[in-house]
Amino acid sequence: MKSKLTTLEDAVRRVPSGSSIALGGSILRRQPMAFVREMIRQGKRDLTIFGYPCGLATDMLAGVGAVKRVEAVYTGLFQFGMSYNFRHAVENGELEIKDYPEVAQAARYQAAAMNIDFIVTKDLLGTGMAKYNPEDIVEMVSPFTGEKYHAVKAAKTDFTILHEYVADEYGNVQWPDHWDADDLDMLMAKASKRLIVTVEKIVPHNQITSQPNRTFIPHSWVEAVIEVPFGAHPAPCDAFYDEDDAHMEIYQSLSREPGRWRKEYAEKYIYGPKDHWEYLDTSLTPSRMARLIVR
Amino acid sequence: MAFYTCNELMAAATARELRDNELGFIGVGTDGRAYTLAVGIPMVAARLAQLSHAPNFTIFWNNLLSPKLDEIPPYLTQDYLTKWPCAFQPVTCEDKNEMLASERFDVSFDSAPQIDRFGNMNITAIGDYKKPKVRLVGCLAQPDHFAFVKRPIILTDLKRRTFIEKVDFITSVGYLDGGDSRIRAGLRPYGPWKVITDKCILNFDNENKEMQLESLHPGVTLEEVLDHMGFRPRIPEKIATTMEPTKEQVRVIRESIDPNHSLLRA
Questions:
Q1: How many angstroms separate the CA atoms of B175 and B203, rounded?
Q2: CATH: 3.40.1080.10, 3.40.50.1970, 3.10.20.340, 3.30.420.240. Which one for B6-257?
Q3: Mean pLDDT of B250-254
């Protein structure tokens, strides 16, 4: 095994503008926010984002005009409301969207993991999603029973970016005691071509080998691993810290008006800090951090 | 003054539709009223059902199968979700999707800003799909609920702009164009079961699969209901009145199920 440790700046430099990227996590939980802020600082553009439910990461990228297309089951911010940056971009015709329901979207990652071109599903029959996307959703009949299905394209992407709990320097990623896996991170990892993982903490290799059944992403799938504490902030990382609701309220109040978020939020929290450490100094105080940490 | 709120009446009415030993799916609601309709009322209804006629009714919510509904957390922030006691917390979403596709769910709870005469729903886009007037949240698993769940229950406020002749975009297929068109499209012979609103309850007639009035909430007139709909539903000769929640149900909701108003909050 070889060390895959690197810096956030180096890992982001590997992802060119125009790439298709699967973003892990779900809505808020474990969104790779530090990675996304660095992508924005490096000026990445024309991105195609694949998600399961998309949320804060996609909204931020859409807010700076970096997204060309989104393929997901949802884009929103759950208890904090609509995803306004994303929404404005779609309503202005600047962002193309391909909507899929959950069973179909998960199947598309499954197909990519199996290295096949397409997979079949029954949850698009009669829907607008199928009607408006005839390139990627094609009606067919079962050669065995004659029943109707849709063939849907595999979700193959250039890169997969995940934010997780702990890993060793080789990229063996493990679960903590309690976690909330309401996402497709493990499947997205299996389906990836080039997988970059940020984690809350790099742990000694012998901690991994003493409990190998906790490893859900093994080193052989991983291209790069980076230690980024509070890497999902202001979204939560289950088992580490909760959502920063005060920060999210600021985010939402500024993103409701197009233009204002870019000037007041993006300048202060994304472009202003030169790296993730300066971001933490800008957005968190020690007492706030202590309150967000979960035990 | 009634001794109950409209949300409490909707929760009690929803509870009556739940049967013992059934499994229900509760989805995600984004903010405010949508959250109360999609998450809050179903959660209260599930617990009310457990406490009366359906002690073995259980739910799948977020990533939790059979969370303890006598220990609903005071806030639904991430850490409360992570640690809410439950029977099963799968290590990937694929399990839930496979449970849906293999038709293991009896009921689901769904809400939308647009719904038509045949129970088709739109949570994706208002106006032109490619350049919408209002972009909504997308799909989530709602199309899966309508494709694979036996009796999806719709919870939506009665509004003229919500109940319209034809939805702008079909996210979730109800009875499509009515009659047997849903079956002809290749879907299972399920489809939406009831529509529980803030003014009345509607269902779908057996033959045409058209929306029809079932009962008016106490104090609501037929005129008022028709005023709040963009199409005229079928009206039966005799219209029932929706049962009020009992005093005991209201007490249990306020004292033990939802003392912080975190569920019935908007």
A1: 12
A2: 3.40.1080.10
A3: 97
